[in-house]
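Follow-up to my post from last week.
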Amino acid sequence: MTQEELIEQLKEQIIKALSLEDITPADIDADAPLFGEGLGLDSIDAIELILLLEKEYSIKVEDPRQRREILASVRTMAKFIEDNGKA
Amino acid sequence: MAFYIISSALLCPQKTFEGTFPEEPISTEGLYLRCAEPDYKQIIPPVRLRRMSHILKMGLAASYLCINQSEVRPDSIIVGTGQGCTIDLEGFMRSCSEGPEELLSPIPFINSGHNTLAGQIAMNSQIKGYNMTYLQEAASLESALSDAMLLLEEGTSTCTLVGAIDEYSPLSFDVFKPHNCWREEPVNNLSLLKADKSGSIMGEGAGFFCISNQPDKQNIELVAADSKMNFKLGASKEWVNNLLAQHQLTTDDIDYLFVGRKGDQLTDDASYTEIENLFPSATIAAYKHLSGQYPTAQAVALWMAVKVLSGHDLPAYATYRAGAKTPKTILLYNNDLNSESVIIVKKG
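User reply:
Got it. Predicted complex:
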């Protein structure tokens, strides 16, 4: 799977996990911040995204300090998945 | 001390969220009725809406409509729910049993507590005073109303938002099925009160009322809200008579009687005939063919009673026995799951 394909898959999974009913994958900019700006997600969504990584890609984020960096955007999430050899 | 209902809002299977009796009731064939819902996006911020289950949306919307109509902003919130947030609780329990516990999603957990309803309403409305939830099956609404009256009497509150919420869920339906609660075959809701078969249809709804220690121009007084467990055939008359006497009322004072007949051949007559005969000249209204049966369905009757006392005519589709009296004092009587409850309201 290419990174672009992984990004598209992640967008679908994020929409489902966070119940973003009015959002389509095309509405999500892969490089836009997920929190604060962009989708405007919050700390509960962060927990859901960490669970998504564990459930869908079997990747456990051991260091809580890594989370901010990994969840910065859809692209950083995709890169993290690739770096852990799960793509 | 007198207590007044100064605003009301109801979401139920009929289109009541517009604030008046619908001209035509919704008629549908089935074993349950689902809520007729407004456009929630116009009422609840989208960021919060996406995390909300059906029952939370119903509760938030009904409370919002009620608060907006009230001349006085409530300072306290009391919610009664017979079954709580069943769908989220089911989802949470299912994920507990099916998957590793360390991977549980937080949202169904947050939404599965019964008191999340009153809490979410507080967050949405920023009403940060007394916040209480009563989970007492068919007596939940009456307990919430009683608590509001005590709160107003002791001076802790000047206006309390009281709500009653329950939702349909397939699991709740199945849990009560072995107790002959539901019809075996689908039935048209408008034919339900013929009571030619055992069981009823399940329903859902959210009713909210602002109760104040000061009247508004409608001047509708909440006289009493009471409930009694362990129903005994033949003992209802004495209990209701005593309640009327406590409030300096007689049976002649009751102009309209709202009964919780639910179309159950096995229980309707045993549950309601004694009370109906106590008020031979009163108009009798019924509502569970419109709302379905659920623990806090008497909120539908209370909303209807408030509308009638505000000058709206009781629709023909809700009239069970016609009478000639002008509605000034209304008694609501419900008998469900071995529990009786009464609410009395009157035009002040």
